[in-house]
UniProtKB/TrEMBL annotation:
It comes from the Bacteria. This is Phage integrase family protein. Residues 8-85 form the Tyr recombinase domain. Signal peptide: none annotated. Gene3D superfamilies: Intergrase catalytic core. SUPFAM superfamilies: DNA breaking-rejoining enzymes (SSF56349).
Amino acid sequence: MEILQARKFTSESKWELPSATSASGHLERPNKSWHRVCKKASIKNLMIHDLRRTLASCMSDAGASQMTISTALNHRNSDSTITYTIACMELVRQYMSKATRIISECARNYNIYNTI
């Protein structure tokens, strides 16, 4: 944050990450830089967008609402957020286990096993 604050006073650009080569005047797709970073870190097949999906999934696993995740991802329509949230299989198992216990309890209460 200190670096960004200092840039306000020293940069002539209105952008935090200016670019001399983009039509917009700011960095739009840092793919070359990202590939260099990944290569240096010996990471293969990781796209910047994967980080966005990971953030959304982690927020979902932490219990954030779809609207909160949508806001964090700056989505105009919260329906598009659902494609970013990948269900954690452990959470799926936990909820399936809870549902199974509820169904079993209902079956026991109604003595369903003795009538089949």
